[in-house]
Design goal:
The protein is built from 12 helices and 8 strands. It is an alpha/beta fold. An 8-stranded mixed β-sheet has the order 1-2-4-3-5-6-7-8, sandwiched between helices. Helix 1 crosses helix 2, helix 7 runs parallel beside helix 10 and helix 10 runs parallel beside helix 11. It is elongated, with a radius of gyration of 31 Å. The structure holds 2-acetamido-2-deoxy-beta-D-glucopyranose. The site of 2-acetamido-2-deoxy-beta-D-glucopyranose (NAG) has 5 residues, from loops. 2-acetamido-2-deoxy-beta-D-glucopyranose (NAG) binds next to loops. It holds the Pfam family Abhydrolase_1.
């Protein structure tokens, strides 16, 4: 009440006697007060909006980058920051870290692991030794990893160790934007870089067989690469697809959670996913190189059913000597990443590598 009366007293110094006038004045004052509070409301809102815009600006600018991140997950690192330049500390003691430039201004972090029969000889050797050893006639396998993290992820090191144990060189690359590689990932540049690396490996190994291993997202890069090279008149010596998906749009994760999050993502990221296809299902019909599918029955991210469909599609254009599929029982619990743990894997891969040799 006091508040209401006070403005009346100050309004014009008049002695107010009529209760009617008093009432009226009070109303006027209330209106005035209402206007003032509206005024302050808008000032405050305006200031708030300005602050919000000011804070949001950098985020809005980053939006395309954030969306890209939600597609490729290239900025998601392991909880520990690995030193990618010291692979020996990560259980790869016959490995050297190198950087190659597929084009000016782009540097890709790559590990070169030599066949593990050479591990002792490799101790303390420099990059020139590693580079020379690439020409020793052993097959070379380019390892193209899946989404998230870097070439230092445990299951990736696991695969590299298996490949090295069967006498292969491994080139394990971090795509643009991943790990210590520069640039930004897109389907086109990932494919371009893998094509470039295949050609580099062919040239620097003196023509040894160069196979491509693609896991998950890497399976898409691998088949794109094989098709792109075919268009350039080069038949890849062999492709191994671990946990391959049908294509980036039609992927059907097995588990409910991943299917749900994938559906949401597809709705939100329509545009960004629009330029990401990785058409494995189409590519395998075009490919004419030896092809091995590896899939775990309990893979929760890429269904066995999709892999089987692609295997059948590949069989419709090539015979069963060139196209194979090995599945792993669900009871083993390998899921999407764990195939490297299987004691049969070295023999399976060795067998495939030998077959590709016979067929070439
Ligand atoms: C180095 O790696 C090889 C092959 O993986 C392994 O057999 C050997 O025990 C390792 N040596 C050391 C000292 O870690």
């Amino acid at each position: 009440m006091r508040k209401r009366v006070r403005p009346t007293e100050h309004s014009d110094g008049e002695n107010v006697s009529s209760s009617f006038r008093m009432q009226k004045k009070t109303t006027v004052c209330q209106e005035k007060k209402g206007l003032a509070s509206k005024f302050w409301f808008w000032v405050k809102s305006g200031a708030f909006a300005l602050c919000a815009i000011f804070i949001m600006m950098p985020i809005l600018e980053e939006l395309p980058e954030i969306i890209r991140q939600r597609v490729y997950y290239h900025r998601i690192r392991a909880p520990f920051v690995f030193d990618l330049s010291h692979p020996a500390e990560l259980a790869l003691n016959h490995t050297i870290n190198m950087y190659l430039e597929p084009e000016e201004g782009i540097s890709l972090g790559i590990w070169h692991t030599v066949p593990d029969g050479k591990w002792k000889e490799a101790q303390g050797k420099d990059s020139a030794w590693y580079h020379r050893s690439l020409k020793d006639g052993s097959p070379v396998i380019i390892y193209l990893h899946g989404r998230t993290q870097t070439r230092a992820a445990k299951h990736r090191i696991g695969v590299v160790n298996v490949l090295s144990s069967i006498g292969c060189h491994v080139l394990s690359m971090d795509y643009r934007g991943y790990g210590d590689s520069t640039g930004k990932p897109t389907e086109e540049v990932l494919t371009k870089d893998a094509v470039w690396l295949q050609r580099w490996a062919k040239e620097h190994s003196g023509g040894s067989r160069v196979l491509i291993w693609g896991h998950s997202l890497g399976s898409g890069v691998a088949t794109n690469t094989a098709v792109r090279l075919m268009e350039q008149g080069v038949l890849v010596d062999g492709v191994i697809l671990e946990g391959a998906f049908k294509n980036a749009r039609g992927a059907e994760p097995q588990s409910y959670f991943y299917r749900y999050s994938w559906t949401i993502k597809r709705l939100i990221l329509r545009d960004e996913l629009g330029d990401m296809i990785f058409p494995n299902d189409e590519n395998v019909k075009k490919m004419r190189n030896p092809l091995l599918f590896l899939h775990s029955e309990d893979d929760h991210l890429t269904t066995l059913r999709n892999a089987e469909q692609m295997y059948q599609a590949a069989l419709s254009v090539q015979d069963d000597k060139r196209v194979r599929m090995v599945t792993f029982e669900g009871s083993l619990g390998y899921l999407h990443n764990g195939l490297y743990k299987d004691p049969r894997l070295p023999a399976i891969i060795k067998n495939f590598v030998v077959t590709t040799e016979e067929m070439s």
